[in-house]
Amino acid sequence: MAHTSKSRRHRSGAVLRTAVGSAPAVAVLALTLTACNADGDAAASPGGAHTAAAEPGAGTGGTAPGSTAAGTATSAKPVASKPAAKPVGGAGGAASPAPSATAAASAAPSPACDHKMPISPDEVAVYRYTPEGGSLSLIVRYGNWGCAPADSDGAPFVTVGKETYLPMDQAAYVTATNPVVESSENQHIGVQEFLDWLEAHPNSGLVFKYHLGADGAVDRLDEVFTP
Question: Whole-model pTM above 0.70?
């Protein structure tokens, strides 16, 4: 039994020595783990990773925005340097006086046209006829030639005064064109044919040039073209 007691005391001392001897090693291991944890925390810190990712110049991620900005600046230079508006504005400014001058020239009346032309002595606008009094008379109005518009084929015949009577010889020589006859040139027609047309188309106002015979009656009547 005495042997057993010694044996137990021996084990207890060995265990104590082992525990005391291993205590520094445990402390060293704990410090080492702590240091590793500290380093690991610093390396794995989300703040550090966020800071690195936010750096625009760090790695290739910062180069791409720089390249894009450089490309944008380069492409903007030719557009900004194009003086597109200047030639267009210059050409428009140079050309604008020409249409104005042309419009003013076209609006000005022709020097050959006189708005106060005298009454034509041998031309009348014919409206109707009458056989009253046993003799033939044309109902006409005198007038003058006005100024022809720019888009017209000729000057208009402007009537003045009231309707009047013009005696006509029943054997007079008459020529007519459109619309009395289907021709662009004067054609000889009979007096009765002319009277029939006047009866069917009263107040037409066709212009005729006339000639008076010795008896004061019209012995020749020629239609005059009017636009």
Answer: no
